[in-house]
From TrEMBL, chain A:
SUPFAM superfamilies: Acyl-CoA dehydrogenase C-terminal domain-like, Acyl-CoA dehydrogenase NM domain-like. Gene3D superfamilies: Acyl-CoA dehydrogenase/oxidase, N-terminal domain, Butyryl-CoA Dehydrogenase, subunit A, domain 2, Butyryl-CoA Dehydrogenase, subunit A, domain 3. InterPro entries: Acyl-CoA_Oxase/DH_mid-dom (IPR006091), Acyl-CoA_Oxase/DH_mid-dom_sf (IPR046373), AcylCo_DH-like_C (IPR036250), AcylCo_DH/oxidase_C (IPR009075), AcylCoA_DH/ox_N (IPR013786), AcylCoA_DH/ox_N_sf (IPR037069), AcylCoA_DH/oxidase_NM_dom_sf (IPR009100), Mycobact_Acyl-CoA_DH (IPR052161). The keyword Oxidoreductase applies. Residues 129-222 form the Acyl-CoA oxidase/dehydrogenase middle domain. The keyword Oxidoreductase applies. Residues 41-125 form the Acyl-CoA dehydrogenase/oxidase N-terminal domain. Belongs to the acyl-CoA dehydrogenase family. This is Acyl-CoA dehydrogenase family protein. It comes from the Bacteria.
Automatic annotation (TrEMBL), chain B:
Belongs to the acyl-CoA dehydrogenase family. Residues 7-119 form the Acyl-CoA dehydrogenase/oxidase N-terminal domain. Its cofactor is FAD. PANTHER family: ACYL-COA DEHYDROGENASE, ACYL-COA DEHYDROGENASE FADE28. InterPro entries: Acyl-CoA_Oxase/DH_mid-dom (IPR006091), Acyl-CoA_Oxase/DH_mid-dom_sf (IPR046373), AcylCo_DH-like_C (IPR036250), AcylCo_DH/oxidase_C (IPR009075), AcylCoA_DH/ox_N (IPR013786), AcylCoA_DH/ox_N_sf (IPR037069), AcylCoA_DH/oxidase_NM_dom_sf (IPR009100). The lineage of its organism: Bacteria, Pseudomonadati, Pseudomonadota, Alphaproteobacteria, Sphingomonadales. SUPFAM superfamilies: Acyl-CoA dehydrogenase C-terminal domain-like, Acyl-CoA dehydrogenase NM domain-like. This is Acyl-CoA dehydrogenase family protein.
Length: 397, 378
């Protein structure tokens, strides 16, 4: 047996033995996702699963062991994820620390920063949020105004962020601030600070889905120390060069938002055929809906192949640097279309906003939520601009 | 296996790209079209395909070929598509060879030498109506003496007029719609009772209507088992459909490239039209669709080569998705070229025509979309 084969066997056996039964149920809503943090809310099985996986470094399997990761190779990581998928296990921990800050720190952070910040992310002890967008800046992110004045041993932060996802539940923030007002991209710094610092306030924003994952975040004379002891700087990368970090992180964010357009397993069509009814041939009993479902299946399977190809070429440094923009565009557009179809298949029943039958309007709220996909993290139009300029090399006006 | 070409496959891609561009360019297609060539392709070029080793890609090394897979066949097909190279590669060296690979040693020994040397051309006699409906095949093959007697008609037999051998799907029992009872035969086109009527297609390729009027074949013409031809047919269709998807991808990529080049140079209102956001966004959307189609095609090729049980689903996804993306590419191409896109002088129209012909070959996007629904059980 090859090393990888025995790794697969051992991994499957360990997962089977250690994953609580509650963590083998499909994710239904937000509360089924485990985010960790200092003041966490855990549902049954969530903490046990997170702790067991964290002990093996498998909440971040491909991070180095010294930073709380599993130190797994690419092939081993893939096997772990495949086995978790095969056994229908939930992710033990979701967090912006894992998806966004972690990769940025691994790339730009000092050794001290990595040792200080990464292990608590891996163990789910600190929940992070992202302070990027500001009112009025939209996709022109670099026009941000939140200022950070150098006051010797600390920075003084004043300004406002918007669309800060889960800011009200986060412990720390990675925040873009303006440290030089005389220039645009080269006057931005990437800072890390505690959300309980005096002067930080958050306010949830109610969305068309009736929910509020997003917040407005206000900074009034917030004092951010330059270091957190032992040479752990609060600024990642150089002062005034935070845009490089931000851009790198946006690449990760864009590929994450792009998802695989399907949130997992089975085809929409087979699911709805059971619900909707079948004709005497066993076909979904609405030929137009059946055709649309099948077209969606094709687009989802093709996009899933694209996501795999993107992942493979990204890791091997073979993809164009603007490829994440293409993935973000394509993935979010397909996800929106998919939810339109789900609404259409559900008919009047999924219009119920607050009933038990509709599980609190879950389907409708999910549909409304997807409308943000092609806006957040850079609009589809901005993605297309980048692709046409950087990949197709079309000229500027 | 990572979802990109490895170094060996990239080397093959380089040599296939150079070869098609040099020997099988669009100018070559125009030349054979304009002289109203009865075959629609050059036999000399087909010999060169053989010298390059391309005709043996799917033939095992033991039998004198390269022993490679659908990924490599696809690499060659994509370059064929990009250059609109007229050739019997898809019918002969991909679908035809895969059918024979499912047959006995004697059949392979009989046919592979001619294929490997570029002397032989194979064509596929499957369709009996205007649309691809292999489950509705009704052509009869009745037992006679030591062999079978074939009666019936086939159409859309691409390269059928120049082929020396036809792979014929017929019924040895049951009737249209039955799962069992199909048998595949390798039939010499010089057989008594076989007549062919070649017609030029919209893309300048030649396809035949073939009539079988009591054509007698020996029992050793059977590929695989009598009544069990469904499996052989499926293997041939898998390779042919995936190959057609790869060629389609090349057509779409070629059309996109010339269109993007065109809008970078063309001026209107004193401005390069490629600076207009209306065109930039459509071009970027097209690029995105082509990339997704490319991933789907490569995934299908790899799954076939790995013998995955889910390969057939991905084959249909690849055929449908490449067809849709390339259809978008050629339509946007003609539109963005404006008036000159309608002229014979510009190549973009030729890409549009090849795409249409390839879309129908072995099932269009609707056919495969329906198959995907069926495979998913709805």
């Amino acid at each position: 047996m090859s090393d990888l084969e025995s790794f697969r066997k051992e991994t499957a056996a360990w997962l089977e033995a250690n994953c609580p039964p509650e963590m083998r149920q499909p994710v239904v809503d937000e509360s089924d996702i485990c985010w960790g943090g200092k003041n966490p809310t855990f549902k049954p099985g969530q903490k046990e699963w997170m702790d067991k996986m964290a002990a093996k470094g498998w909440t971040v399997p491909d991070w180095p062991k010294e930073y709380g990761g599993g130190g797994l190779s690419r092939a081993e990581t893939k096997i772990l994820l495949q086995e978790m998928g095969r056994l229908k296990m939930r992710s033990p921990l979701s967090s912006f620390g894992i998806w966004m800050l972690g990769p940025a720190l691994l790339h730009f952070g000092t050794e001290e920063q990595k040792l200080h910040f990464l292990p608590p992310i891996a163990r789910g002890e600190v929940r992070w949020c992202q302070g990027y967008s500001e009112p009025g800046s939209g996709s022109d992110l670099a026009s941000l105004q939140t200022s950070a004045e150098d006051k010797g041993d600390h920075y003084l932060i004043n300004g406002q962020k918007i669309w800060t996802s889960y800011a009200d539940k986060a412990d720390w923030i990675f925040c873009l601030t303006r440290t030089d007002k005389s220039t645009k991209h080269k006057g931005i710094s990437f800072m890390l600070f505690d959300m309980t610092t005096k002067g930080v306030e958050t306010k949830p924003i109610v969305l068309i889905s009736g929910q509020s994952a997003f917040c407005e975040t206000f900074f009034a004379d917030v004092e951010v120390p330059k270091t957190y002891g032992d040479g752990v700087s609060s600024v990642v990368g150089e002062v005034n060069r935070g845009w490089d970090v931000a851009k790198y992180l946006l690449g990760h964010e864009r590929s994450m938002i792009s998802g695989d357009g399907s949130s997992g397993a089975t085809s929409l069509g087979s699911k709805f055929a059971d619900q909707y009814g079948r004709d005497e041939m066993g076909r979904l009993d609405d030929p137009m809906l059946r055709a649309q479902m099948a077209e969606m299946d094709i687009d989802v399977l093709a996009f899933r192949a694209m996501a795999e190809r993107f992942g493979d070429t990204f890791k091997a440094n073979l993809c164009h640097p603007a490829q994440p923009n293409m993935m973000k565009y394509a993935g979010t557009e397909i996800n929106k279309r998919r939810h339109e179809l789900i609404m259409s298949a559900g008919g009047s029943e999924v219009l119920e906003w607050e009933s038990d039958a509709s599980n609190g309007g879950l389907t409708a709220r999910g549909w409304l939520r997807t409308k943000a996909n092609s806006i957040e993290g850079g609009t589809s139009e901005v993605m297309l601009n980048v692709v046409s300029k950087q990949i197709l090399q079309l000229p500027n006006a | 296996m990572p979802l990109y070409l490895n170094d060996d496959q990239k080397m093959l891609q380089d040599s296939a790209a150079d070869f098609m561009k040099g020997e099988g360019s669009v100018a070559h297609l125009r030349e054979f079209r304009d002289k109203n060539c009865k075959d629609g392709f050059s036999h000399a070029l087909w010999k060169q395909f053989a010298e390059m080793g391309f005709t043996g890609i799917l033939v095992s090394e033991d039998e004198g070929g390269l022993g490679l897979g659908n990924v490599e066949a696809g690499v060659v097909l994509e370059e064929i598509g990009r250059n609109l190279t007229p050739s019997p590669f898809l019918t002969t060296a991909v679908a035809g060879v895969e059918a024979l690979n499912a047959g006995g040693k004697a059949l392979r020994e009989k046919y592979f030498p001619g294929i490997l040397s570029g002397d032989s051309v194979l064509a596929l006699a499957i369709d009996e109506g205007a649309k691809h409906r292999p489950d509705q095949i009704s052509m009869a093959a009745t037992r006679e003496g030591n062999g079978f007697k074939l009666d019936g008609k086939k159409q859309f037999v691409v390269q059928g007029g120049s082929a020396d051998t036809l792979i014929v799907a017929a019924r040895t029992s049951g009737s249209a719609g039955d799962e069992k009872g199909l048998t595949l035969f390798a039939v010499d086109t010089s057989a008594n009772g076989l007549s062919r009527d070649s017609v030029r297609l919209v893309d300048s390729a030649m396809a035949a209507h073939v009539e079988f009027d009591g054509v007698v074949v020996d029992a050793d013409a059977v590929i695989g088992e009598v009544d069990e031809g469904g499996a052989v047919l499926q293997r041939m269709l898998n390779a042919g459909r995936t190959g057609a998807a790869a060629e389609t991808l090349g057509v779409g990529a070629g059309a996109m490239d010339i269109t993007v080049e065109y809008i970078k140079g063309r001026k209107q209102f004193d401005t390069i039209i490629g600076t207009f956001q209306a065109l930039q966004h459509r071009a970027a959307h097209l690029y995105s669709e082509m990339e997704i189609a490319r991933a789907a095609v490569l995934k299908a090729q790899q799954m076939l080569d790995e013998g995955s049980s889910k390969a057939e689903l991905m084959v249909s996804v690849a055929k449908a998705k490449s067809s849709k993306a390339t259809s978008l590419s050629v339509k946007e191409g003609v539109q963005m070229h404006g008036g000159v896109g309608m002229t014979d002088e510009y190549d973009i129209g030729l890409y549009m025509k090849r795409d249409r012909a390839l879309a129908e070959f072995m099932g269009d996007a609707n056919y495969h979309t329906n198959l995907v629904a069926e495979m998913h059980g709805y």
